[in-house]
Every structure is written in structure tokens, then in C-alpha cells.
Amino acid sequence: MSRRLSYESFHKRFMIAFGILIAVVHIGQFTFSPMESIKFYAWHLMLGSVVIFLPKPGVSKPRFVLDWLMAAAGVLVGLSVILNYDAYSMAMQNNRITPYFYFLGLILTLLTLEGARRVIGATLPVIAVVCILYAMFGGDLPGLLGHRGYPLTRVVTTIFSDQGIYGAPIGVSASTVYLFLLFAALLSVSGADKVFHNIAVAVTGRKRGGPAKMAVVASALFGSISGSAVANVVSTGSFTIPLMKKQGYSSVFSAAVEAVASTGGQFMPPVMGAAAFVLSDIASTPYARVCAAAALPALMYYLTLFKMVDIEAVKHHLQPLRPENIPSPREALRGSFKLIVPLLVLLFFLLVERTTPMLAAIYSMVAILVCGFLSGKERPTFRRIMEGFAEGARSLPQVVASCACAGVVVAMFALTGIGLKFSNFVMQLGEVSIWLSLFLSMVICFVLGTGLPTTAAYIICATAIAPALVKGGIAPLPAHLFLLYFASISSITPPVAVASYAAASIAAENALKVGLAAVKLGAAGFVLPFAFVMNTDYLHFGFDWITLATWISAFVVCYSAAAAIQGFVEQKISFVERALYVLAAAAAIRSDYSASFFGWALFGALYLWHRRRTLAPERLDSVASQQRT
User: Fold this and answer.
1) Which of 130, 187, 204, 404 could form a disulfide with 214 if both were Cys (CB 3.0 to 4.6 A apart)?
2) What are the backbone dihedrals phi and psi of residue 249, each rounded to the nearest 5 degrees, phi first?
3) 116/118 Cα distance (integer angstroms)
4) Closest to 180 measured CA to CA, from 5, 325, 357, 10
5) From CA 467, how far away is CA 459, in angstroms rounded?
6) Domain contains 498
7) pLDDT tens-place string over residues 387-422
8) Residue 358 CA to its chain's centroid (Å)
9) Are residues 77 and 200 in the same domain?
């Protein structure tokens, strides 16, 4: 027992020290000690491998020894590339791998597959192994699937090069994603998570159905920083789901609200999820432009969910929170400068100074530490700050494992040309109907997303599908955002809906029921990608008529969609009324302004009709009361 306790103590201290080392390497790359890209990626993957394979306290002795051996192997490969960088570069450029580098490449491939299996499950490693086997034995296949076939040495060379594991996916993880993971970790240890919670309660607590609305607001705020659906569910859902149940919402509905709200954080600016940084790199679009384009669709997603939650509260006559449970605005905003200032710094450097996302994240982390130091009694302790660096390291394995293993798949796509063949197939469908291409792309994102993190699913889809959508006439940014949305929405789509499952476990409810309810509540996420692909005004952001008209249409679409799906406004509505709301949404979402104006007018007429019908009984009750008096 004492050995276990001593190892637990060592493990905690090691993670703090290792977290500081990781931070120094990554911050140094963009400030005081830049290095060649492949060297930096090797550092990133090496450090990530150690965290992936570092033995956890309490494991059996054989597993303990094996884990340390794998961690040591990851260090060996990384240091070999870093220390012999010139020889490695020469071998890769000439496409002639030496026996030594072949051995290292083979070890790294096996470590990558095993690391991904441990961290994110078997789905992506299985896909990678199938791709490797296809590269080796695809020469025996007939027809379009056949190719020349490649020996294992060529396969390993490609995987070990900047086309594979040291390619774009791990490059984005190293350059951008980690720094924002560290930013989120430091923000949390500074006490900003409590500020998020207090602001959400203060804003929504006095409204009907307050707890559910609080879940929506809190998850949008926290998710825009964390970018992880499951992490968002666990952090905010542990408080909001029990509170929703206590207030009168069903367990299924409570868990579904949290799952849908948390999933939206992956495409909610200003930070969005890890996949958004990959998108910026692959689509060759500045990250600030990606954030601006993603703003309105993300707000529409949350506005629709917010209205559906409001309607559910009306259905079940749910009341606001008790006043004693609602903090005053002053109390909610107490200490908020340590949340608001870093976010303002982030936005300033991203949108005004237009620096790289990496430098913006570094400046924002400095702001977190300075604001924390100035926060008086609520000042974070040195231990808490060190724990923030350790938490940044703990959040690294999933993204490193996903991106490295996705790099294997991308390498095999490039080597065999299967990605181009699949892209051509999607493009041929687009010649028949662009809707068929989009629908097939959606299905593929769902299938990949059932077992993969959003980042990995998006990378594979962007490699195989995005070129076809662009050749089919869709602009690059809408095409990539389309794939990002459906890679994200797969988190709530059964049969393997990770966000829904996490919420279901907190609510002690059936996961499939929660998943189906989440699909209903998250309906906007299934429609919006098609909308902004066909009407790119929804990705336009500026101080002009187009933005004003689009935002009005967005409000009409969100409100109409919520009413049509729920079949309720202030009271139950008929089938004909639901159909009219669908018509209003369908008209308003179009790029044709005459159709949009028609949608606005129809929505206005429906709203006034329901308002009049709701107020009529109240007036009659008021007259009757006066007559009795």
C-alpha cells in the first residue's frame, strides 16, 4: 500500500514537472527558441507519447513495466529524429530510408496504433491498419480499387515522413491545439469556471425553466473555451443535470439538453474545438476568418436549443429557480475580470492585431496569470497554477493520439491514391446533384464520428471529401465547415454518441433514449450545414445590410424550427400551424430575399396570432375578476 501511495505521489509530481516542460517547449517554439517544424513535431509527439504510456497508479506489475518500456521507446524515436535531424531529412527527401530509420519508423507506427487504441478506442487504429494492408496488398485488387502495391519499407517511409505521422494533423496539434488546451486549463484553475457558472445562473435563473437555460448558456461559454464535448458534459453537467431534474425536467430531457449544449462548443467561437485549428490550416483560411464565419451558425444552434428548452418549460409549467439560489449580478460578476480580460486579450490579438493563434494564446495565458495575481483573496495559489500545467499535459493524449493515428490514414490515402478516387466518386455524384454529394458526405462524417474524436473524423473527411466538394462548386470555407459540423454532431448521434452517453451516465438514464432525445433537440445542427453551404450569407459577418438581413432571418428560422419541432408555443399548436412554421423557416433561410421577406411576414403573422390567442383568456379572466369585485 505504501508503494502505491509513493508512486501516486511521484505520478502527481512528475505530471507537474512534465507539464511545465511541455509548456516551455511549446511556448518557446513561438517566442524565444524556434526550431525546424519536423523537430518541433517530434518533440510534441515524444512528449505526448510519454503522457499516453505513463503508467497509472495501481496497474499490475507486468503492465507497469510494459508501459514504461513503451514510454521509453517513444522517447528513443523522438530523440533520434531530433538529434539526427539532418540525416533524417536527407533520407526522407531522397525517399531512401536507412535500416536505422526504418526500424524507428516501424516502432513509431506500432506505438501510434497502440497509443490511439488506449486513448480513443479501437476504431481509428483499425481503420489505419486496414489502410496499411490496402497499401501493401491493394495491387491484387481488381478495378478502381486496385493500385500498383507497395512494400512495407515504402509504407513505413511514407508513415514516418511529413506526409504521415509528422504531417499536417500532428503539426496543428503541436502548433495550436496544445496551447489552447493549456489556456483552458489555466483559465479553470484561476477560478474562471466558477465565474462561468455564476454568470449563467444570474442570466437565466429568474426565467422559466431556468436550470435548463443555465445549462445551455454555461455549456456555450465553457465549451467555446474547452472545445471538447465530453469534457464539457462532465464539467458543467455534473451540476446542471441534477438541478434540471430537481426542477421538474425528465432525466432523459435533462441529459439531452446538456449533451446538445456541450457538443455545440466544438464550433462556438472564439476558441472552438481542436478541429477548427486543423480546418484553418487545411482550408488555408486565417483562424479569425473561421471564427467570424462560424459565429452566426453557432448562435443559431444555441438559440434554437434555448427556445426548445423554453417551450419545454411552458409545456410542464416549470418555474424559475428560487431567489436564494440566484446570485446577484454584482456577486456573479465578482472576480469576472480574470475571465473577461484574458478573453478580451485573446480576441484583440486574433481579430484586431491579427497575430497567429499561437501568439494570441500565449498573450492570453500571461493575462490569466496577471489577473489571477491581482485578484486579492481569490488569488490562485502556486500549487493551483502548477496543477494547471499538469492538467494541460493530461489533456494532451487524446489530441496527440488522434492526430498521429489520423496521420497514418492520411499517409496511406496519399500513397495509394484512394482519397483521390473517393473524391472523384463524390464529385461525380455532384454532377448529378450537389445534394447527393452533401448527403453522402454527411453520412460518412456520421460513420467516422461514431468511433472517432471530432478532430480525427474531420481530418479524414477533409482529406477524402473536401476536394470533391470544392471541385463541385462549393467554396472551401463552407465545404470544410460543413464537414466540421457533422463530425461534431456525431457526438450526439446514436449508436455511439459519446456526449449523450456521458450525460446519460450523470443522469442515471438509458443512453439510447438520451441519444434520440438529443437528436431532436440538436435538430438545428443537422440543417445548418446544408443552409450555409447553399446560402453563404450565413457565413458573412460585417456591418452591412447582408448581415442585418441574415441575422433577422436567423432569428425567424430558429424560433420557427423550435415551434415546429416541439409542436407548442404558449400552448399546443395544430398540424397546420406546425407546417406553416416549417414553411416560414424554409423561406427565411433561403438566399432569395423575396423568399426571406415572405418567411419574415409569415412568422410575424403566426406570432401575432398566437400572442392574441394566448392573451385572450387572460383578458377574460381579468374582466371576470373585476366584475366579481
Assistant:
1) 204
2) -75, 150
3) 5
4) 357
5) 12
6) no
7) 999 988 998 888 888 889 988 988 998 888 887 777
8) 18
9) no
